[in-house]
Each structure stands twice: as C-alpha cells, then as structure tokens.
Amino acid sequence: MKLQRCPFIQLIDIRFSDTDANGHVFFTNYQTFFDTAFLKFLDHIGCNVLFALLQTPIYYDLDNFKLDLK
Q1: How far apart are CA 29 and CA 14, in angstroms?
Q2: Who contacts 62 (Cβ-Cβ below 8 Å, separation ≥6)?
Q3: DSSP state of 8
Q4: What parts of the chain have a pLDDT lower than 70?
Q5: Is residue 22 situated within a structural domain?
Q6: pTM of the predicted model as reported, rounded to 2 decimal places
Q7: Is 61 part of any domain?
Q8: Using CA atoms, how far apart are residues 12 and 67, in angstroms rounded to an integer?
Q9: Which of 19, 42, 51, 65 could be bridged to 47 by S-S, CB 3.0 to 4.6 A?
Q10: To which H or E segment does residue 40 belong?
Q11: Which domain holds residue 44?
C-alpha cells in the first residue's frame, strides 16, 4: 500500500468526564485520543482494521508521542 502525502485531521469531542475540576483535560486521556485518531487514520487510508487483524495482527507500542497545542 503506497501512502500519499495528505493531511489527516481527526476532531475528537472532549467530554466533561475527560476533564478535571478545573476544566483541564486529564493528561492520560491524550493517549486514548491518539489511539482513536490512529484507528481513524488507518480507516482513512483504506486499511480495514478488523480485516487486517484477522489476516495479520498489527502490533504497535505507544512509547512516546508528541503533542503540539496550537
């Protein structure tokens, strides 16, 4: 599968339960947001995750990720 350079943006709704008493997003939720966006990206490029998992499991470790707030 050849990937083309194209921007991918996934908007995620932040729920009240994702925030602390001050209204700030709890830092551990960012990993959940990243995972959601990653699965949406795979769908965007045409990789059916369920089919791919049945054929060849996809393993990835989320050891480090960078968040740029704009």
Answers
A1: 10
A2: 31, 34, 35
A3: -
A4: 1-6, 49-54, 56-70
A5: yes
A6: 0.60
A7: no
A8: 14
A9: 42
A10: helix 29-44
A11: 16-55
